[in-house]
Write a structure and sequence with these properties.
Elements (H helix, E strand, L loop, with lengths): L5 H18 L6 H5 L11 E2 L1 H4 L1 E8 L1 H22 L4 E7 L2 E6 L5 H11 L13 E6 L3 E6 L1 H26 L5 E5 L3 E7 L4 H9 L4 E6 L5 H5 L7 E5 L7 E11 L3 E8 L6 E7 L1 H13 L5 E5 L2 E4 L11 E4 L5 H13 L6 E9 L1 H56 L2 E2 L1 H14 L1 H15 L4 H33 L3 H35 L8
Parallel strand pairs: 1-18
Antiparallel strand pairs: 2-8, 2-17, 3-4, 4-6, 5-6, 7-8, 9-11, 9-14, 10-11, 12-13, 13-16, 14-15
Helix pairs in contact: 1-11, 4-5, 6-10, 11-12, 11-15, 12-15, 13-14, 14-15
């Protein structure tokens, strides 16, 4: 074990160079980092919300609105199905979370029930009938359609998971690094965005549902009649933001939805020079959009975002290329935000902001200062203990290995851009505290071997070889615990686990290999007859 192999020297030299190179940017100002040569690393520690400040949001997914939307879709599906089957009906309405419809001819109730059961709802495993709705007839003419409880629970859970993914994509588009987005309870989401300087914009970008649909304008009734309450079945009156009308009567059935978009970008209109949002559909959306515009030339269709009409142009000709533009009263920033939302996808349900907090940079600076102070105090305590217990030589070598260990941890965190939080600093301090455990085990074994009468070189070799099993066992156990915390924890727990995991690997390397190389150099240079710690 005490053989001074070339690979050991190379490994130690490379580790020191790596630690210095990737730690150096943390000691420089932004202008100094920018002036570094292109081959030099420039990444610095990525501080978390509690260290550099930022925004904290607690959001709640409005599962009630999700259920209401599903009921509306079921109602429209029932209307379409019965019309296609030629079955007369009336009194189609939502009542207490269910859809009721009265079939005019009692002889057609069975046919209506079968048609609705085959056309309405979606497949759902593990429930009677295999679908997420139940359809049953009653009173000879009435048909009742209701969701099964399992379907609503599954849909709510899916909506929360989908919302988390969409929120993540939206925040990534804003350029915020390492956001923390976790689920809390059954329908709440916690968002932490370190370094975000505009929490209101973050709230607006995250909270907007961004559900885009393309729907036909219902021109069978004038806008005055619609405003007076004469709204045909299957249509609804929506407010407008296009500057030409306060509202439009829109057919509820969407021709194309935003889920079929593949791209959306802010551009400037070539004629007017005003900001517009250009979009492109996937294959299915392009076909639907092409068919809809081909069949409705001369009619108006509405571009609807979150139940508000952005634009309602007249279809001048078939649009078969699968792309188009959204015009409106956009500023450059609002057009960029809309394109961002459309690229990230629509939220399955509205999000309600339950809590909004801004962590100031002053608080973060205080936390960083406290972390630096506690790290320095811990290091000084370890230094004093090792010098008193094992003398200037052996204790000093342990301290040198500990310094290299700290460099490697900071360098690895800077390289991987892992978020360093206050619990992460606690993990760093814990790592430094236990890093000398390996040295203690090695040194105590050397003492025992010297007391047993073995030579200096034999004692040193036994100190490393016989302590390795204990060192590996202890650190593998710690590493497994850290990996479990990282896998199943969230937020601060993950930060602590990640720092601890890095520290375990670097601690074993520095405490064993670096100590071994330095002691081998000392032994080769001095050829001692006894060990200073014996």
């Amino acid at each position: 074990m005490m053989t001074l192999s070339r690979w050991k020297i190379i490994a130690v030299a490379l580790s020191v160079v790596f630690g210095l190179l990737f730690t150096l940017p943390n000691l420089l100002t932004p202008s100094q980092r920018a002036a570094l040569p292109g081959f030099m690393p420039k990444n610095v520690l990525n501080l978390g919300l509690d260290l550099q400040g930022g925004s904290y949001l607690l959001l709640e997914v409005d599962t009630g609105a999700l259920r209401a939307e599903r009921l509306t879709n079921v109602l429209e599906d029932v209307r379409k199905t019965l019309r296609e089957e030629g079955i007369d009906f009336g009194d189609l309405a939502q009542v207490n979370g269910e859809v009721l419809v009265r079939v005019t001819d009692p002889a057609q109730v069975q046919a209506a029930t079968t048609a609705i059961r085959n056309a309405v709802g979606a497949p759902l495993a593990g429930v009677p009938g295999g679908r997420d709705v139940t359809v049953r007839s009653e009173d000879g003419q009435r048909v009742r359609i209701a969701f099964v409880p399992q379907a609503l629970a599954a849909e709510s859970a899916q909506a929360v998971e989908q919302s988390i993914e969409i929120i993540r994509r939206r925040i990534d588009e804003l350029g915020t690094r390492e956001p923390t987005i976790i689920r809390q309870g059954s329908n709440r989401i916690v968002v932490q965005a370190p370094g975000e300087s505009d929490p209101e914009r973050l709230k607006n970008v995250i909270g907007q549902t961004a559900k885009l649909t393309f729907q036909m304008v219902d021109e069978t009734v004038s806008s005055e009649e619609a405003a007076a309450g004469r709204i045909p079945p299957g249509s609804e009156l929506l407010p407008s933001q296009d500057g030409y009308s306060t509202g439009y009567l829109i057919k509820k059935r969407a021709l194309v939805s935003g889920e079929m978009l593949t791209d959306a970008r802010m551009q400037f209109d070539q004629q007017s020079g005003r900001p517009v949002v250009s979009f492109r559909f996937n294959g299915q959306g392009a076909r639907r959009f092409g068919d809809a515009t081909t069949q409705n030339i001369g009619k108006r269709f509405a571009i609807v975002l979150d139940k508000q009409v952005i634009s309602a142009p007249v279809i001048q000709g078939a649009i078969t290329g699968g792309s188009g533009q959204i015009t409106g009263n956009f500023t450059e920033e609002s057009a960029n935000d809309l394109a961002l939302l459309l690229r990230a996808g629509a939220l399955p349900a509205p999000l309600m902001v339950e809590q909004l907090c801004t962590v100031g940079a002053v608080l973060g600076a205080d936390a960083v200062k406290a972390g630096q102070t506690s790290t320095l105090v811990g290091f000084m305590a370890i230094l004093v203990f090792m010098l008193l217990a094992y003398g200037l030589l052996f204790g000093g070598i342990s301290v040198v290995a500990l310094l290299v260990n700290g460099l490697l941890i900071i360098a690895t965190l800077s390289l991987t851009q892992a978020t360093l939080t206050l619990p992460g600093i606690a993990g760093l301090i814990l790592t430094l505290a236990v890093a000398v455990d390996a040295n203690v085990l090695i040194y105590e074994r050397m003492r025992d071997e010297m007391r047993a009468g073995r030579s200096v070189i034999a004692s040193m070799d036994a100190g490393f070889s016989r302590a390795m099993t204990t060192i590996i066992d202890a650190n593998v156990t710690t590493l497994l615990a850290a990996l479990i915390m990282f896998q199943f924890g969230s937020g601060p727990v993950k930060g602590f686990a990640w720092t601890l995991s890095i520290g375990v690997v670097t601690s074993v390397f520095s405490a064993v290999l670096i100590t071994q190389v330095l002691l081998a150099w000392w032994f080769r240079a001095t050829r001692p007859k006894t060990l200073p710690i014996s």
